[in-house]
Amino acid sequence: MFIDTHTHLFVDAFDEDRDQVVQRAIENGVEFCLLPNIDTTTIASMDELAAKYPENCFAMMGLHPGSVAEDWEAQLEAIREHLFSKPYIAVGEIGMDLYWDKTHLEAQRKAFRMQVRWAKELKLPIVIHAREAFQEIYDILDEENDDDLTGVFHCFTGTEKDAEKILSYGGFKIGLGGVLTYKNAKLDEALKNVSLDHLVLETDSPYLSPVPHRGKRNESAYLLHVAEKLADIYSVPLKEIEERTTQNAKELFNICI
């Protein structure tokens, strides 16, 4: 039993075959899919998928940094209303992304900090998107981190030093997806001092497909390729990767399955 801790199965890339994609995941042992929200336009489709597969799909609530624009305050107010009125498993996907555009840097900071505080209030983990913004995120976490804050840096692409910093917060895991299978990613070096106890698996589908599907639409069934690569890096049986990453995900997201 594997848990895909980060998959956007509710987006329009799956409109033609969503049910088949969910079934393929289950048939391949990826029995549980955690759904990070993007913005107010994706809430309905995400909630609908979670309601259709209540034993397999679990929704989060948050505002993705890529959706932080001129209307970010109105978006956040709507996000908050949903978050505080329904039983979501995490606050996510949140964070900062300075890869494409730094126009809304200050708004991204404020939105991230605000959602971190909501998570602490609700005692929910946060799911962090960090792209070209590790230091900016650390600056906020250095101030906000306490015993009530837990979470995961999803789609980790950092260095050994970044991994050390993330784990120093005490309540955080590192999420590994398709990038782990890319030759030039060098994530094996970044993970050389990281115990399996700190890792969870993800696909970030429909994005970042692992080898041998790189360049094509990603889906949760492909999580097995990530798990196999991790087993190779740590020189352990695939079964151990399955058991330990699943247990890590259960504990982090407080899901009884």
Brief synopsis:
The protein has one domain (2-253): Alpha-Beta Barrel (TIM Barrel). It is built from nine helices and eight strands. The protein has helices at 18-27, 43-52, 72-83, 105-122, 134-144, 160-168, 187-190, 223-234, 238-253, and strands spanning 2-4, 30-35, 57-59, 91-97, 126-131, 151-153, 172-176, 199-201.
CATH superfamily: Metal-dependent hydrolases
CATH class annotation:
Alpha Beta
Cα distance spanning the termini: 10 Å
Main β-sheet, in a few words? Answer: 5 strands, parallel
Count of strand segments: 8
Helix content: 25-40%
Rg of Cα set: 17 Å
Order of helices and strands: EHEHEHEHEHEHEHEHH
CATH architecture: Alpha-Beta Barrel
Number of domains: 1
Summed up, the helix count is 9
Q: Please give the order of strands in the largest beta sheet.
A: 4-5-6-7-8
Report mean pLDDT, rounded to a whole number: 97
Q: How would the global form be characterised?
A: globular
Question: Care to describe what's here?
Answer:
Helix 8 (223-234) crosses helix 9 (238-253). The longest helix is centred in the middle third of the chain and has 18 residues, at 105-122. This protein is 40% helix and 14% strand. It contains 9 helices and 8 strands. It has a 5-stranded parallel sheet, with helices on both faces. With 257 residues, the protein is an alpha/beta fold. The protein has helices at residues 18-27, 43-52, 72-83, 105-122, 134-144, 160-168, 187-190, 223-234, 238-253; strands spanning 2-4, 30-35, 57-59, 91-97, 126-131, 151-153, 172-176, 199-201.
Fold blueprint:
Blueprint: E1 2-4, H1 18-27, E2 30-35, H2 43-52, E3 57-59, H3 72-83, E4 91-97, H4 105-122, E5 126-131, H5 134-144, E6 151-153, H6 160-168, E7 172-176, H7 187-190, E8 199-201, H8 223-234, H9 238-253
Helix pairs in contact: 3-4, 4-5, 8-9
